[in-house]
Amino acid sequence: MRDGFVAFRSFSSEGDGKNGIDTDVVTYNTLLDAFHKNNMSSEAEKMWTLMEKKNVISNVRSYNSRIRWLVENNQVVEAEELFEEMKNRGINPDTYIYNSMIKACAKDGNLELAKIWYVMLEEIGCAPNRPTFKLLITLACDKDDPDSAYDLCKKCINLKLNVFTGTIQRVVDALVDHSMIEEAKELLEIGKNCPFRYKLSMPNDLQ
């Protein structure tokens, strides 16, 4: 992989749009993704520097790759700084970047901050997806917040996003444990009648 970077750097230095092939942001993003997925952060940083040297304007996917890697490697402060840098450059974050920030909160067990990122996601018009809800619902259950988990489940089902039976069942069980029986029954019915036909259950004495 490092040999690939050296070859690309040599190739791109020759290609300036006049005598060679002019590499664009798509090419750089592909390589950034590859380096980050192979945990080659130093090579990814060299690629980022090369992008700036070549005046290749980074986009949301460029930042997504870097932020995701930082979160995966528990460098949350750096991820937050990069998020702010991206916004200052006029690049709007997408759902995937917000999911990375929510994942950082999940790893830290910070439900309240995760909720803030979720609100920010919705406020700028991004659409939450299945990973968004999977992260938030699981975190809400981990933090013993059945109310939040219940609300998130209903919204997720309403948006026709499948977070799988086990996740919804965990919320039903949490509601029962907190004596929120009516809410548990409602979620069970919603889940059974939604397009995914979740096979959910309640304790026999509560059915």
Characterise the protein shown here.
It contains eleven helices and no strands. Residues 14-21 have low confidence and may be disordered. It is elongated. Helix 9 packs antiparallel against helix 10 (165-177). It is mostly helical.
Task: Please outline what is shown here.
PPR repeats lie at residues 24-58, 59-93, 94-128. The protein has helices at 2-14, 25-37, 41-53, 60-72, 76-88, 95-108, 111-123, 130-142, 146-158, 165-177, 181-193.
Topology, please?
Elements: H1 2-14, H2 25-37, H3 41-53, H4 60-72, H5 76-88, H6 95-108, H7 111-123, H8 130-142, H9 146-158, H10 165-177, H11 181-193
Q: Which features characterize this protein?
A:
11 helices, single chain, 207 residues, elongated, mainly alpha
Low-confidence spans = 14-21
| Structural class designation | mainly alpha
What's the tally of helices?
11
What is the rounded Rg? 22 Å
Q: What is the mean pLDDT?
A: 90
Instruction: Assess the beta-strand content as a share of residues.
Output: under 5%
**What is the makeup of the main sheet?**
none
Shape: elongated
